[in-house]
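Model: You mentioned two targets. I'll fold them one after the other.
Researcher: Yes, keep them separate.
Model: Target one:
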Amino acid sequence: MISRRKTVMSVAAAVSMAMMFAGCGAGGNSADQKDDGSMMTVTVYDDLANYQGVQKGWFAKLVKDKFNMKLNYISPNVAGGGSTLFDTRSAAGNLGDIIITGYGSGRGSKLVRAKLIDDMTPYLSGMSNIKKHKDATDALNRQIGQKSGVWAIPGSVSTRKPTVAGEGLEPTFGPYVRWDLYKAIGYPEINTLEDLLPVMKGMQDKARAESGDNSIYAMSLFKDWDGNMMNNVKQPACYYGYDEMGFVLAKADGSDFESITQKDGIYDRVLKFFNEAQRQGLVDPESTTQNYDTMNTKYKNGKVLFSFWPWLGQAAYNTNENRAAGKGFMIAPLKDQKIFSYGATPNGGTTMIALGSKARNKQRLVKFIDWLYSSEGVYDSGAQTGGAAGPKDLNWTVKDGKPVLTDFGSKVLNGGKANVPTKWGSGSYTDGISQLNFPTELVSDIDPGTGYSFNATLWPSEIEKANDSPLNKDWSEHMGGAKTTMEYLEKNKMIDIAPGATYVQPDEDSRISTLRGSVKTEIVNDSWKAVFAKSDDEFQKIVDGMRTQTDGLGMKQVLDFDMKNAKDQDKARKAIVREYSKSGADAASK
């Protein structure tokens, strides 16, 4: 997931300096200042934003009309320099008026101790949307060492059970193939991961023969997201219920915890699969040098036939035109798959939104935060973060008691470009979306006002439209009549849901970090060498050498740390299931 998840850095020295300045600053004095309602510019320190500067467009107009505020984003992602921006602003004693950041690795508790964020409790009268998430704010308090107060609200909060999939129509991971070419070679059976090899070979041969283009490859890889391991190798492991925790691949149900260097383990299996694909000429030779954007362009141009994720292949290639022509990526019927799925998160994720201690007009800011957790706020602020339908009356309306997209909404939510009507401001719809990049609630959750999801792709009207395309019709006919990927996976027990618990990894000491740096470099480099080995003997020599080298570099010490974290995460998942079951039983008895 997606996954381009960002680990937020925590720097004790900067926060320690903030503690020294905290006693000298204005601190909470601004709470006593009367708000005259005049226009105010709000500094939003946002670790998730990919934009820096003042919010523009329709979302800016909406915030101005409702709160008479301008949002000015401070974004480490844009500013660069790692944690420098956080360090500098923390040391000055003022991180921002509104703060969006991760609370793991001790960061949340340090922000409280340094008096960089304020307890929102004095401002919560009438704030029903924040109050409805009391369980989530209490859980966050436990993580940051606070016994009372509302110091922040976590993102991605869900009203659904932690044992249901948190995704929408598609899982985060899955073996997606160019269905039109899979159809062209006769829908061959795919019993195991290894059975994909002859299928991909047939698809590649067919595509090249039809187009005369020998630059088409079944698979294309990239290095951008490599971390503790070769990221691309991890993805098929997710098809069998595994996800990563450092150097550990852990099953969603807690039944298995493997080192990525384990002989004949799942990582080993996928390395062999990739190597065999490469030796059959199925892997793009530019994989070792290209970045994600270059590879993504190849998907858009029909040059790659297999996708690790729906949000890559489908997003790039499944245009309305291609789907109407029966072309596009759909999940393959891999018979032994048990795909890892992230469960819904009743207590939210590991990022939070907080009130800066030096902010003016705190009541107005808390009203804004409360609005973000309202149904309207989820629709309007969630347009960037993966599927919220956007503003009512612009993108959608209610017809015969059900939500439906307007012509404008259908266009802009399916990749089209359009300027917003004058009453909504000015400029293009895309340029005006919220730059917060912070999902307050899961967009796959249900809007109590409509009875349907915040995500338009889950509406009956949109599912009906999607299934009317030749591509979807043919896929459904060959997948037991399933109307969606999730329906197919759930019906065939091919999904493994990791209960949606909020687990925050503890700080790792400098010794572990140093060892990890050396070990992961060896693993990543040797993994790429193994994928491009020219024989079984060369492959095995590289993989065996990787195990020997990493053992000598301190793999065991780091693995012990990661293994404990993986098992603690599993305990947290089991605990949230028990907690939710108990609260459900208590509610039923009242």
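Model: Target two:
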Amino acid sequence: MPASALPASFRFPSSPGRGTMKTLFYQCSAGISGDMNLAALVDLGVDRSYLVDQLGRLRLESEFTLDFSRAEKSGIWGIRASVMVKPVSFARSNSPHRHGSRHAHRHYRDIRQIVVDAGYSSRVETRCLRIFHLIAEAEARVHGCEIDDVHFHEVGAIDSIVDIVGAAICLDYLAVDRVICSSVELGHGFVDCEHGTLPVPAPATAEILKGVPCRIGGVDGEATTPTGAAILKGTVDAFESPENFRIEHIGYGIGTRDFRVPNVLRVMLGELADEPASNGGDGRQSLEIKANIDDMTPEALEPLMERLFEAGAADVFLTPIVMKKSRLAHMVSVLCAPSSRDALVDALFEHSTTIGVRIQSASKRILPRTLLTLETRFGAVRVKVVELPSARSRWKVEHDDVKKLSILNGMPYGEIRKDIEAEVGTLLVAGHGAAGDQE
């Protein structure tokens, strides 16, 4: 059935439009730290008064002050953020890691409670907890302890708390659909920290950035900190260079290091167009989220799929696989729009036994389609009509409608489906021209 034969209200667009997504692009040619990220996002356009006000929810104002100032590196002007830690005395701890009176080095479990008690939106809280978890998990693995017992300088220091929570607040303020990032410069050499002199990248940084495209050796010294690495890993949808990207705003976060390249983090906000399609399709960007599960029964996977669809999945499917030690398992694959990523990852963690997911960018090519509702002698039925690149079309009746009409009419499913399809074919020929091919 040619598209021109359909009623005007159901016509396919003669030239399928390309959608756009509000996209934030991180260019980490000189690495990233928590303060550089905060500065870049403020320079991009986040209202600093709003940020400071939201940080006040943490009730830690007695421990720090946050200052923003104009700064320059190699002729590039931007914003420098400084978290000034106030001298505060704390009660002695039984932990062997006592760090004096400058600031508290809290346990991971304490940080979680501070964030939850702050009463942020679910989006901000979820992103904060994800970033903190990445650092705590990496530190626990490096130091050989349980994650809730992690008592370490990076995530427990007040400046890192401000950097991480501030990042989540800024990203929520910008309300982007997608976050992408270039490869990440790590630097090289050695860095002094509370555990001694460590190689660059620091062990926690390397652990966090597993699977992320990185460069090592572009600058001397530590270019990317554990906090910066975790902000990227917990935020970025895809590590890739953008195509069809229209830049609208640019922000520069100015660092304090003197590298042979400018110690600057650049962020760009703009619109990322869907990939151009050919031969009548309408290419779109989406994400594919995957998890391998070997300890859930098939019955338990069905409600998981329902939860994923409720959380915004465009499609969910299961693939039988064989894992290590010859364990039979299922790979859960979820297709979604970038804006649904956080909700779907949370749903996988909440409603399945998986402890990790893989996320990758995927290009989709979608044929133009429309949905007709036709009246048959058995009742109303929806019919999906798809236009092929050759301008031919094919159609298919909706299973749920056939199932409902089977029950209402007291007829076997196979019999009523055959009768409905015959009647739909006749209606399409009579009302709209050639019926096209039936699926």
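Researcher: Noted. Anything on target two?
Model: The domain at 284-366 is CATH 3.30.70.1380 (Alpha-Beta Plaits).
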